[in-house]
Amino acid sequence: MPDLVETAINAGNFNTLVKAVKVAELVEILKNPGPYTVFAPTDEAFAKLPPGTLDSLLQDIPKLKKILMYHIAYGDAMSEDLIQIDHAETLEGSIVAIDSDNGKVKVNDANVLKTDIITDNGVIHIIDAVLMPAIVAGK
Predict the structure, then answer these.
(1) Mean pLDDT of the region 35-59
(2) Distances in Å between the alpha carbon of 114 and those of 54, 118, 138?
(3) How far apart are CA 74 and CA 135, in angstroms?
(4) What is the distance between the alpha carbons of residues 107 and 42, in angstroms, rounded to a whole number?
(5) HSE on the CB side for 7, CA within 13 Å?
(6) What is the DSSP-derived secondary structure letter of residue 113?
(7) Is 29 helix (H, G, I), strand (E, B) or coil?
(8) Which of 14, 65, 85, 137 is the most exposed place for a label (fewest CB within 10 A)?
(9) Nearest to 95 by CA among 104, 103, 85, 105
(10) Which band of pLDDT confidence, cut at 50, 70 and 90, is reported for residue 102?
């Protein structure tokens, strides 16, 4: 079974995320045994960022790394788990809020579009927005 990185590459709609992960040198972390839960923004989610934001982040590796690690939680939280929990601790060190209502799940303000893409070392949930940790958003 492919790992998180291979799965994201094969999906074809995470090109921006995969590029950012490579630039931030997080590929090795995402190839570790984990398990990890990745809240993966689509290319469309990255396109919603204000103009110039992505280019700026690709130049600011520490900030990019922080943002990407904010999309990765410890453990493999499946959709049933997401419904039962209200937050998850991220590799970045802070917490993302998880809210479920009538079968719809949100991570902070992002909607989960698809859940439970199982990989060899975790699970991917597709989200429709890029999550920003408070320390980055506040700058």
Answers:
(1) 97
(2) 23, 11, 29
(3) 20
(4) 14
(5) 20
(6) E
(7) helix
(8) 137
(9) 85
(10) confident
Q: How far is CA 103 from CA 71, 83, 129, 130, 135, in A?
A: 21, 8, 19, 21, 30
Reading the block at residue 94, the tokens are 């802070």
The amino acid sitting at 102 is: N
Q: Record the tokens describing residue 96, joined without a space.
A: 């993302």
Q: How many residues does the chain have?
A: 139
42 pLDDT higher than 90: yes
Q: What is the pLDDT of residue 97?
A: 97
The CATH number given to 4-134 is: 2.30.180.10
Q: Which residues contact 116 (CB under 8 A, 6 or more apart)?
A: 78, 79, 123, 125
